[in-house]
Structures are given as C-alpha cells and as structure tokens.
Design goal:
Elements (H helix, E strand, L loop, with lengths): L2 E4 L3 E5 L4 E9 L3 H5 L3 H25 L3 E6 L4 E7 L3 H7 L5 E4 L2 E4 L1 E8 L2 H21 L4 H30 L1 H7 L1
Antiparallel strand pairs: 1-2, 3-5, 3-8, 4-5, 6-7
C-alpha cells in the first residue's frame, strides 16, 4: 500500500491508487491459443468483456489503473492489476471470456482465476506453491521412469533455488554474522 507517513503519528492518509491483483490461468485445448497470447490483446479483450457485462459504468470504473502486469505465454499465467474498489467488476467479467482472437484466428478458451491478492509479491508466493502442487500431481501420474526423473529433478532444483535465494536475503541483511549463523 502506498501511504504518506509522519514519524510521530504514523500514516496520514491512503493514496487514491491502491490496486488489487488477479492471478489467472488461460485454459484451452488448443496449445496455439496460449502461444498467441499478447498482453495488449488480452487487456483489450478483458476491457471489452467488462463493458459488455457491466456497461459503461463498469468499463469506466475498471479502466482506471487496469493493466496486464505479467503474461507467460508458455504456462498461460496472467496477472491483472485493477483498483481494489472495482476488482469484483473485473473478476465477475472473466467467466464471460470464451475465446481469444489474435491475428485472424479465434481460439476457444476460458480464464481460471487462481488467486486474488493485494500485492504482486503475494501473487508470486501463491504461484510458486501452485506450481509445486502441479509438479507433484504430474509426478504422481507419470507412467514412464524417465519422465519421473525429469520431474523430480525439476522439483529438487526449484527447492534448491528457493533455499539459495533465502540465504542471500539473510546474508544481505546481516552481513558476516548472519552468514556465520547459517553455517
């Protein structure tokens, strides 16, 4: 949250631009749908859907501060930013998106809302946990031993990377004493 602070009294007032974030997944049977994703196209599709579902008030209220903050075409993960007061307008319009149209092609799809958060960081944390759960589900459904080894290596690598980043954060904050304490 963005706030003005006074050292003696604490927060004075909230700034008017507080945002909420919707973490979504594009689900489609056609793999070309996700590969053709562009943030500009997806943003205009969401805006048009909000206008169709909620009219001019919904379009005007949600257009202030609306943006596609993150888009991964390979996984189909999308992070939408909107104002906190109107996140429900955006959220309630998402089920009405039934196709993605790009470069003259129309792909049937829908947006699955995974998480609603107040910061990008909370959405990132949720996404890490979500991806781990998905990898474990894939691991349980493996039939080939080679696939199983590849997924196990991926899970192990992601856990090691997280531990290393946690150690770096601790060592940056406390200097040599924190690094000695870790050992």
């Amino acid at each position: 949250e963005y706030r003005f602070w006074d050292r003696t009294k604490g927060p004075l007032r909230k700034l008017p631009w507080e945002f909420g974030y919707l973490l979504c997944e594009v689900v489609s049977d056609d793999p070309r749908c996700r590969l053709s994703l562009e943030d500009r196209v997806l943003g205009s599709l969401v805006r048009d859907t909000i206008a169709r579902v909620h009219g001019t008030f919904g379009a005007a209220a949600s257009s202030i501060g609306f943006a596609v903050r993150y888009l991964n075409a390979y996984t189909g993960i999308v992070l939408l930013r909107c104002r906190k007061e109107f996140y429900q307008l955006v959220w309630s319009a998402l089920p009405f998106i039934t196709y993605l149209e790009n470069k003259g092609h129309r792909y049937p799809c829908f947006l699955n809302t995974l998480h609603v958060g107040g910061t990008i960081r909370t959405c990132q944390k949720f996404l890490i946990q979500y991806n781990r759960r998905q990898l474990l589900i894939l691991l349980q459904h493996c039939t080939d031993e080679g696939e199983r080894e590849v997924i196990q290596k991926s899970v192990t690598r992601s856990c090691l990377l997280e531990e290393e980043s946690g150690e770096e954060e601790l060592s940056d904050g406390g200097g040599e004493e924190a690094a000695d304490a870790m050992e």
